[in-house]
C-alpha cells in the first residue's frame, strides 16, 4: 500500500517573534516494512539554518532556526510511503509474557535495546492502577501476544473516545477514572500498564489513513497526528504494533513517523521562541492511498 | 570489617606520631590550646564575612563555610599513588561514557545492565551520537570522595563527573589558613595549588575549536546565578580562571554558534564551563524549564563550534551502582585491574548480590542505584519501622538500589574546645585533563564530621572542612603549564564585554543606593523638625512640604501625612521605619543587587556593602517605639546620618577601586538619573506654599527646605548671605552645573557618560539630556527676569512636573538602549494547548 501524507502546522503569534528554534520529528522513518519513497519538509518563513540527523532512537530529526522577525510559522511535511507490515506470528505461539519480561530485565544480546522501553519515562510513569488494569489480561503463562490483543480490545471497549476533556498533563490514573480520552491517553495507559508488569512498550507517533477503505467505518484519530503502542514479543518475534484507540493490530492503515519512550521523545513540532506572546495553532493532516482516490471517491 | 576500629591519621598503632605530622605538631603545641581555639573563631568569622556558603547539604538557609585551623597531612608518596589511581579511574569512566553515548557495546554484551543506563535520569539521549561519529572526551574535570579504611587503604566512595564542587573552597581554605594561622603554614613547605589552576585555565583555551580569524578563544562559565547554592564558588573560580561568569539569559545561539550578549554586541564563546545541570542546557532538547539553558546550544555542540565541559551527559557516571561493575569494566576497557579499590558495592538488581546481602541490611549503606546526589542511608541507624519499610521498597524494586560496605573512616586531629580532638574525615581530590593526561590538584578538601553514632555508624550531615596538605619533597616536583602559543592579548578598555544583564544590575544598584540616601536625607530633615515640641508656622510649612516628599518616597502614606506635626504622625513615621517598611525594603534591594554583582565587585567593596547594610538594618531595627518620641527621633536621625555616611563610603570606594569603564559607568549613571528625578520632585513639593504667589515671604520656608535637601545651605550663604530669593535658590538647585547636588550637574554628568558609552557624540539620549539642561536654565532665567520672583517660581509647577516625566523617559531610554538587547524566551511544544490537538 502506498500513501501520500501531508501534515501542516501553523502558528500565528500574538506579537513578533525575533528568534525561533524548532525541533521536528516529521519525516517518516525508514523501516523494513515501511519504505519512504520521498519526503520533504518546507517552512514559511524559510529557516536560516537547518540540520538533519538521527536521534538516539534512530528517528529522523530536523532542527530549524529562524533569526528574522516573523509573525507566523508554518511547517509542511509531505511524503510518499510504501507500507507493508509482515503478518504477526500466531498469538498462541508467542512466548509466555513472564518469559518476555525476564528477557527484557536481563538485557544483553538480543534484548538490550528493547529493555530501554520497560522503564518509567517522564510522561509515562509507573502507575500501579494501570498495572492492575493491564494484569487482568496477563494470567500466568499466557502467550504475550494473546494478552496484548485482549488488552488492546479492552481499552477500546472500556473507554470512550472524546476530544477536549484531557490534555498533555492528564495523568494516566485520571484517564482510568474518567474512562474517556483521545489516542494519546489510551496509548499512555497501555504503555504504563505494560511497563508496570515488566513488558517493554514504546510510544509510536504517526498517522492513520483519513478516509476508510470503501464500506468500512472511518477510523478514530484521522485528520490528526496519531499515536499507538509498540510492544515487544521477545528476541525472535521482535516488535508488534497495536492501536488501542481503534482496537486494531497495525497492518496497512498507519504510517510511522518514529518512536520513543513517550510523546516527549518524539513530539512532531517543538520550539523555543524569543517574543511571540500568545499563539494560535492550526494543524491539518491528510493521509491518502496513492491511486485509490478514484476508487474511494466513486 | 564493619566492627574494626578507625585508623588514626596522626597517631600510629603503637601510640607514636606518624612522621609526616612532624613539623606541624611542634607549631601546634607552641601555638597553645587557647590560641588555637581563638584562631578557629577568626576563621569562622572570616568565612561569614566572605559570604562563603557551605557545600554540605542544607535547607534554604545554607550555613556559612567553616574551615578547621588544623590541616590534614598526606605523605607525598601516598598522595601520588592516590592521584595515579584516580587518573586510571577517570580514564575508565571516560571509556564507559564514550561507549554509553556511542555504540553501547557494553549493553549489547551484557556487561552493563539496562537498568543502570536507561533508568538513569542523567543518561541524556540528546547527547548520544550515532555509531561512527567521532567525539571529544566527555570528562575534563573529575573529583572523587575517598575514605581511609581501618586496613590503611583509601577507598573511593563516590565519583563526581557532572561538575566537581569544592575547588573554590580549596583555594579559600589555603588563603585563610595563611592569614589566620601563618605559623602552621610556615612550618611545612607545601606543594602548591597554582599549577593545577594554571593547567586548567590553559587546557580550557586549548579545548576551543580553532577560530577562523585567529582571535583569542572565548571561555565562559555558565552558572544558575545568585540563587545557586554554589554561587560563591562560581564567583571565585571564574576569577581564578579569568573567564566570564554568565547565566543562560546572557547567551544566545546564532547560526549554529554560541555568543555572549554584551554591550558591544555578540561576542563568540568557544568553550563553556558548565556549572548547571546537564539536563537544563538546552530547552529545545532537555528540560523545558526556562532560565538556565540556551535554545540551540546542543545543535552548536554537535556542529563542533562550541565545547561544553564537562559534557552535559557526563553526570551519568555518578551512578553509585556503577561502582559494582568497574572492576570488570577496567579489564574489558583498559585491559588492566583497578589500581584504587572502591568501597565494596553491590547492585541489588543482581540476584547474586541480593543473596549476599540477604536479610542483613545493617552491614551496608543503602544508596539509590543511579542517583549519586541522594545521601546514602545507614539502615542500622533507622528506627525499626523505617528499616522494615526500606527493606520493603528494596524488595519491590531491587534494581533501584545499591549497597556499599560500611566502613569507619579514619580520624584526624581537629581543633575543639578541649584542644585537639580526633574526628572522622572524608577526602575529596580533584583532577583535570590537560589534553594528554590527568593532572591532580596537589592538595584537596577534607570534611570532618562529629563522631559517628557508635551503635550505627551513621555519619551526621553537618561538619566542617579541612585543608589538605601535601608536603614538598624536592624542588624538581615543581610543575607548570606547558608553554602555549596564545597570541598576546589586545589592549582593551571600556565597557564592551560587560554582559547587558550586569550593566542593568549596576544601573539599578546606583539607583537604589541613591534612593536610599535620598530617603535618609528626608528622614533626617524630618526628625530634626519633629523633635521641636511647638513648631513655628515656618517650621510647620516646611514640615508640610517634607510630608509631601515623604509620601512620594513611600515613607509615609498620604492619609497620615495630612496630620504632620502631631504625635500620632511621628509615631507612624517611627513605626514605618522600624518595621519591615520602605527603608528595610531599600536596604534589601541594595543587598540583593550587591549579591547579584558579587563577581563584579572588589572584595573591599563587597565587604563594605555587606557590613554597612547589616549595621544599618540593625540601627533602624533598634529605633525605639516607646512613649518618648524624642528618644525615637534622635535614634532615627542618627540612623539616617549613618546611611549618608554609608553612601559616601560606597561612592568613595567606587571612585577609588572601580575602573572607570564598565560597571562603574552604569553605577554612576543610575545614581545621576535617580538623583535628578528626586531633585525635581522635591523642588516641586517645596515650592507648593499656599499664598506664596501674592506674598513672597510665604515662599521662604520652601526655598530654605529646597536648599537644605540639596545640602546647599552653606554654598548659598557664601554667595548671597542671608537674603532668600527665588531666582538665586533655583539657580543653585536647578541650573548651576558646578553644584554636585544640583540638577544640572546630574544631567551634565549623565550626558557625558552617555557619550562615553556610545563612543561618539550625537546620540538621541545625549541630546535628550542636553535639552533637559537647557530647560533647567530657561526656567531659572524666567524667574530671574520676572517682576515677582516668588510668583514666577510658583508658576513653574507644570514645567517641573514635565521635567520629572522627562527624566523618567531618559531612564527608560537608557534601559531600552543598553539592557533590552533581547526579550525573554518561552517555549512552544508539548504544552497543553498544542497537546490537545497534537495527536488523537
From TrEMBL, chain A:
It comes from the Bacteria. Residues 175-246 form the Transglutaminase-like domain. Gene3D superfamilies: 3.10.620.30. This is Transglutaminase family protein.
Amino acid at each position: 500500500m502506498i500513501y501520500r501524507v501531508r501534515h501542516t502546522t501553523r502558528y500565528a503569534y500574538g506579537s513578533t517573534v525575533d528568534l525561533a528554534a524548532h525541533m521536528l520529528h516529521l519525516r517518516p522513518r525508514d523501516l523494513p516494512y515501511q519504505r519512504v519513497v520521498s519526503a520533504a519538509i518546507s517552512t514559511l518563513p524559510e529557516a536560516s539554518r537547518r540540520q538533519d540527523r538521527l536521534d538516539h532512537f534512530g528517528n529522523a530529526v530536523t532542527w530549524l532556526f529562524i533569526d528574522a522577525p516573523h509573525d507566523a510559522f508554518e511547517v509542511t511535511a509531505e511524503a510518499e510511503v510504501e507500507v507493508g507490515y509482515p503478518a504477526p506470528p500466531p498469538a498462541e505461539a508467542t512466548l509466555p509474557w513472564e518469559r518476555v519480561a525476564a528477557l527484557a530485565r536481563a538485557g544483553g544480546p538480543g534484548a538490550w535495546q528493547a529493555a530501554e522501553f520497560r522503564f518509567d519515562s517522564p510522561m509515562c510513569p509507573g502507575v500501579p492502577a494501570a498495572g492492575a488494569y493491564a494484569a487482568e489480561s496477563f494470567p500466568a503463562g499466557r502467550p504475550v501476544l494473546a494478552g496484548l490483543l485482549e488488552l488492546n480490545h479492552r481499552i477500546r471497549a472500556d473507554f470512550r473516545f472524546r476530544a477536549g476533556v484531557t490534555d498533555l498533563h492528564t495523568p494516566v490514573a485520571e484517564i482510568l477514572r474518567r474512562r474517556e480520552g483521545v489516542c494519546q491517553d489510551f496509548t499512555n495507559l497501555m504503555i504504563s500498564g505494560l511497563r508496570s508488569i515488566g513488558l517493554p512498550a514504546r510510544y509510536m507517533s504517526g498517522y492513520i489513513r483519513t478516509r476508510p477503505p470503501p464500506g468500512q467505518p472511518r477510523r478514530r484519530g484521522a485528520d490528526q497526528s496519531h499515536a499507538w503502542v509498540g510492544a515487544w514479543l521477545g528476541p525472535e518475534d521482535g516488535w508488534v504494533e497495536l492501536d488501542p484507540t481503534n482496537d486494531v493490530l497495525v497492518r496497512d492503515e498507519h504510517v510511522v513517523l518514529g518512536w520513543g519512550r513517550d510523546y516527549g521523545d518524539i513530539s512532531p513540532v517543538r520550539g523555543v521562541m524569543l517574543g511571540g506572546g500568545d499563539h494560535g495553532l492550526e494543524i491539518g493532516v491528510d493521509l491518502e492511498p496513492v491511486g485509490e482516490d478514484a476508487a474511494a471517491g466513486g | 570489617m564493619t566492627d574494626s576500629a578507625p585508623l588514626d591519621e596522626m597517631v600510629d598503632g603503637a601510640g607514636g606520631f606518624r612522621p609526616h605530622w612532624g613539623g606541624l605538631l611542634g607549631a601546634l603545641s607552641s601555638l597553645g590550646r587557647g590560641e588555637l581555639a581563638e584562631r578557629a573563631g577568626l576563621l569562622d568569622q572570616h568565612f561569614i564575612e566572605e559570604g562563603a556558603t557551605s557545600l554540605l547539604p542544607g535547607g534554604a538557609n545554607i550555613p556559612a563555610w567553616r574551615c578547621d585551623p588544623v590541616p590534614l597531612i598526606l605523605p607525598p608518596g601516598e598522595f601520588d599513588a592516590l592521584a595515579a589511581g584516580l587518573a586510571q579511574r577517570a580514564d575508565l569512566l571516560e571509556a564507559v561514557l564514550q561507549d554509553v553515548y556511542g555504540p553501547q557495546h557494553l549493553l549489547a554484551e551484557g556487561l552493563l545492565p539496562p537498568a543502570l543506563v536507561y533508568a538513569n535520569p542523567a543518561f541524556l539521549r540528546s547527547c548520544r551520537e550515532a555509531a561512527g561519529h567521532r567525539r571529544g572526551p566527555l570528562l575534563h574535570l573529575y573529583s572523587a570522595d575517598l575514605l581511609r579504611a581501618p586496613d590503611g587503604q583509601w577507598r573511593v566512595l563516590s565519583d563526581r563527573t557532572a561538575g566537581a564542587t569544592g575547588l573554590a573552597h580549596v583555594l579559600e581554605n589555603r588563603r585563610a589558613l595563611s592569614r589566620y594561622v601563618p605559623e602552621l603554614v610556615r612550618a611545612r613547605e607545601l606543594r602548591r595549588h597554582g599549577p593545577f589552576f594554571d593547567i586548567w585555565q590553559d587546557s580550557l583555551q586549548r579545548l576551543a575549536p580553532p577560530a577562523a580569524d585567529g582571535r583569542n578563544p572565548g571561555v565562559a562559565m555558565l552558572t544558575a546565578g545568585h540563587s545557586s547554592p554554589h554561587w560563591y564558588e562560581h564567583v571565585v573560580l571564574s576569577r581564578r580562571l579569568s573567564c566570564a561568569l554568565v547565566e543562560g539569559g546572557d547567551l544566545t545561539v546564532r547560526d549554529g554558534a554560541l555568543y555572549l550578549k554584551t554591550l558591544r554586541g555578540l561576542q563568540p564563546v568557544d568553550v563553556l564551563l558548565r556549572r548547571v545541570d546537564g539536563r537544563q542546557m538546552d530547552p529545545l532538547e532537555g528540560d523545558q524549564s526556562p532560565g538556565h539553558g540556551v535554545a540551540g546550544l546542543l545543535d552548536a555542540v554537535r556542529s563542533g563550534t562550541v565545547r561544553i565541559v564537562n559534557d552535559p551527559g557526563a553526570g551519568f557516571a555518578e551512578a553509585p551502582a556503577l561502582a559494582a561493575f568497574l572492576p570488570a569494566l577496567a579489564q574489558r576497557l583498559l585491559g588492566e585491574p583497578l589500581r584504587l579499590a572502591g568501597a565494596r558495592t553491590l547492585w541489588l538488581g543482581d540476584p547474586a548480590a541480593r543473596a549476599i546481602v540477604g536479610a542483613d541490611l545493617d552491614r551496608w549503606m543503602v544508596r539509590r542505584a543511579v542517583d549519586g546526589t541522594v545521601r546514602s542511608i545507614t539502615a542500622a541507624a533507622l528506627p525499626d519501622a523505617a528499616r522494615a519499610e526500606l527493606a520493603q521498597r528494596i524488595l519491590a524494586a531491587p534494581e533501584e538500589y545499591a549497597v556499599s560496605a560500611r566502613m569507619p573512616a579514619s580520624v584526624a586531629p581537629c581543633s575543639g574546645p578541649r584542644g585537639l580532638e580526633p574526628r572522622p574525615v572524608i577526602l575529596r581530590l580533584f583532577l583535570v585533563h590537560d589534553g594528554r593526561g590527568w593532572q591532580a590538584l596537589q592538595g584537596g578538601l577534607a570534611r570532618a564530621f562529629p563522631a559517628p553514632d557508635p551503635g550505627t555508624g551513621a555519619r551526621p550531615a553537618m561538619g566542617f572542612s579541612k585543608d589538605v596538605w601535601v608536603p614538598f619533597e624536592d624542588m624538581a616536583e615543581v610543575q607548570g603549564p606547558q608553554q602555549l602559543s596564545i597570541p598576546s592579548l589586545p589592549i582593551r578598555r571600556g565597557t564592551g564585554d560587560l554582559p547587558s544583564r550586569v550593566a542593568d544590575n549596576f544601573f539599578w544598584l546606583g539607583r537604589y543606593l541613591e534612593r536610599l540616601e535620598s530617603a535618609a536625607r528626608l528622614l533626617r530633615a524630618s526628625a530634626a523638625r519633629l523633635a521641636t515640641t511647638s513648631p513655628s508656622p515656618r517650621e510647620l510649612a516646611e514640615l508640610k512640604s517634607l510630608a509631601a516628599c515623604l509620601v512620594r518616597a513611600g515613607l509615609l502614606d498620604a492619609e497620615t501625612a495630612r496630620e504632620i506635626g502631631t504625635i500620632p504622625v511621628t509615631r507612624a513615621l517611627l513605626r514605618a521605619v522600624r518595621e519591615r517598611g520602605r527603608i528595610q525594603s531599600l536596604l534589601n534591594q541594595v543587598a540583593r543587587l550587591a549579591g547579584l554583582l558579587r563577581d563584579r565587585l572588589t572584595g573591599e567593596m563587597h565587604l563594605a556593602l555587606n557590613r554597612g547594610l547589616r549595621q544599618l538594618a540593625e540601627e533602624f531595627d533598634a529605633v525605639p517605639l516607646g512613649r518618648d518620641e524624642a528618644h525615637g527621633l534622635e535614634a532615627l536621625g542618627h540612623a539616617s546620618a549613618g546611611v549618608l555616611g554609608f553612601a559616601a563610603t560606597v561612592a568613595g570606594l567606587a571612585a577609588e577601586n572601580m575602573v572607570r569603564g564598565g560597571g562603574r559607568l552604569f553605577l554612576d549613571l543610575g545614581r545621576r538619573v535617580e538623583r535628578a528625578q528626586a531633585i525635581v520632585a522635591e523642588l516641586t513639593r517645596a515650592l507648593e506654599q499656599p499664598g506664596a504667589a501674592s506674598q513672597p515671604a510665604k515662599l521662604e520656608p520652601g526655598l530654605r527646605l529646597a536648599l537644605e535637601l540639596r545640602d546647599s545651605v552653606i554654598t548659598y550663604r557664601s554667595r548671597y548671605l542671608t537674603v532668600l530669593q527665588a531666582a538665586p535658590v533655583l539657580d543653585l538647585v536647578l541650573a548651576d552645573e558646578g553644584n554636585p547636588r544640583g540638577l544640572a550637574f546630574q544631567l551634565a554628568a549623565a550626558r557625558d557618560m552617555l557619550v562615553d558609552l556610545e563612543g561618539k557624540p550625537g546620540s538621541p539620549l545625549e541630546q535628550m539630556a542636553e535639552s533637559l539642561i537647557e530647560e533647567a536654565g530657561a526656567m531659572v532665567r524666567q524667574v530671574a527676569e520676572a517682576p515677582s520672583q516668588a510668583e514666577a517660581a510658583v508658576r513653574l509647577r507644570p514645567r517641573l512636573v514635565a521635567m520629572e516625566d522627562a527624566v523618567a523617559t531618559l531612564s527608560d531610554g537608557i534601559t531600552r538602549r543598553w539592557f533590552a538587547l533581547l526579550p525573554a524566551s518561552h517555549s512552544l511544544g508539548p504544552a497543553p494547548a498544542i497537546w490537545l490537538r497534537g495527536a488523537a
